[in-house]
């Protein structure tokens, strides 16, 4: 009888240990995404109560024009989760690939007004509203979901390099007129913080982007 009780106690401890491990794994899976505050893209995790006291890097205010000639600003995406990238319509290399892959995001959230995409032209002098509209029609881009942006070149380049760290550390060392080209796409949360960085030329990275959007949706 004593031996039997000892076995029951032993197996109870084993079961208790598995339950603790299971709960720990569930908590880990539910862990929120990191914040990116610098051009080296070091991930930072914070407790929710810390967010009110820390000065975190946030996307700077902007005003640009989309493919429909509509002004798009940080107010347009306020309270929304959005994906941002940089491209130009006559790019023969990475831009078509990025656009094709980001179309997966548009498709995944076609009926979700909470999710948006912003693609900023790095050649605004040639990417007029009409040119962006032509590009949007070619790629079947929904102008209610996905804004192709043009405007002042200096503003776009400053936004890319200082707000999004689009070219990582090297971008901060470039002259303001040096051409900007990057394959990165950025996941921005409802408060304007960078929560993910992805190579938009890689299907797997874009799949991870969609997964991370789901994580953000569950926390915000």
TrEMBL record:
Pfam families associated with the record: SCO1-SenC
Record-linked InterPro entries: SCO1/SenC, Thioredoxin-like_sf
Highest taxon, organism lineage: Bacteria
Family classification: Belongs to the SCO1/2 family.
Protein name: SCO family protein
Lineage: Bacteria, Pseudomonadati, Bacteroidota, Cytophagia, Cytophagales
């Amino acid at each position: 009888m004593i031996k039997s009780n000892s076995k029951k106690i032993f197996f109870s401890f084993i079961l208790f240990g598995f339950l603790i491990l299971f709960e720990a794994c569930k908590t880990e899976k539910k862990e929120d995404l990191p914040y990116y505050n610098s051009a080296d893209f070091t991930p930072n995790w914070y407790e929710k109560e810390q967010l009110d006291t820390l000065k975190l890097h946030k996307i700077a205010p902007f005003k640009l024009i989309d493919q429909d000639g509509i002004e798009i600003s940080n107010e347009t995406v306020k309270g929304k989760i959005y994906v941002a990238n940089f491209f130009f319509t006559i790019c023969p290399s990475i831009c078509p690939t990025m656009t094709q892959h980001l179309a997966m995001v548009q498709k995944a959230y076609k009926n979700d007004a909470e999710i948006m995409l912003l693609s900023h032209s790095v050649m605004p002098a040639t990417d007029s509203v009409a040119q962006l509209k032509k590009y949007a029609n070619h790629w079947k881009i929904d102008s209610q979901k996905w804004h192709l942006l043009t405007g002042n070149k200096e503003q776009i380049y400053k936004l890319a390099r200082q707000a999004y760290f689009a070219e990582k550390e090297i971008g901060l060392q470039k002259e303001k007129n040096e051409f900007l080209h990057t394959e990165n796409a950025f996941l921005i949360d409802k408060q304007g913080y960078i929560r993910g960085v992805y190579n938009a030329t890689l299907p797997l990275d874009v799949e991870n982007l969609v997964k991370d959007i789901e994580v953000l949706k569950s926390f915000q």
